[in-house]
Amino acid sequence: MTKLLVMISITIIVAFGLPNKLNAACGEDCDSAYQSDVQSCHIMYGDDPEDADELSTCIQDARDDYRSCVEDCADQAD
Which among 8, 75, 63 is positioned nearest to 35, based on CA atoms? Predict the structure, then answer.
């Protein structure tokens, strides 16, 4: 009986705890990718006012990718 309770407890912990850890890691990956993408935008376009539109578009694309990544993480958690 005790073995059965231990097995049930472990199953519950794994079932509810593991997805949360995986989801957190997924979110961290999204954060890292976003930071890297924005940094790349600044490296490519710099501070030149003539490149302001391209910089803005690049950063908006990074935001869109970030939102998609976070949504994918949420979908994986469900």
Answer: 63
From CA 14, how far away is CA 78, in angstroms rounded? 15
Q: How far is CA 14 from the centre of its chain?
A: 22
Distance between CA atoms of residues 19 and 3, nearest Å: 25
| Residue in 20, 32, 30 with CA at minimum distance from that of residue 64 | 30
Q: Name 66's Cβ contacts closer than 8 Å, sequence gap at least 6.
A: 30, 31, 33, 34, 37
pLDDT in tens, 18-63: 445 455 688 899 999 999 999 999 999 988 899 999 999 999 999 9
- For residue 25, what are its two tokens? 């890691």
Orientation angle between helical segments 2-45 and 52-77, nearest 10 degrees: 170
User: Beta-carbon neighbour count of residue 38 at 10 Å?
Assistant: 16
